[in-house]
Write a structure and sequence with these properties.
Blueprint: H1 3-7, E1 18-19, E2 28-39, E3 48-54, E4 60-66, H2 67-73, E5 80-90, E6 98-109, H3 114-119
Parallel strand pairs: 1-4
Antiparallel strand pairs: 2-3, 2-5, 3-4, 5-6
Amino acid sequence: MTIQDDVFAEENKKGSGSFFKFEKIGDKVLGYYISEKMQEGQNGFKPQMVYRLEKEDGEIVNVSVKLYTADKVGAVKPGQMIGFKFEGEFETKFANKGKDIGVYVTQKFKTSNPELDALGF
């Protein structure tokens, strides 16, 4: 078996990720930061920032937040663990209530070396 065969093994395939949905207060998602992109506003909705995270189990998720929430994230680095939590609701001038999403940025980074992970690095 070659390195290429190993890399392209089915168990190594990563999906594009599903969107995490904040449905009830207390819902949260935690993962290692992969990337972010601006999603233009559509159908009367304002632009949002979409964060791509890899959860501890390897699942890829996309988290879409309003720009005022994205401002709380600051400068995160690839592999840095961040979390988002639905902490409450607030009234808006629209029919739907707004969601207060808390942002949690840790100093924990994902390492790609399982031997170092086992040692706590």
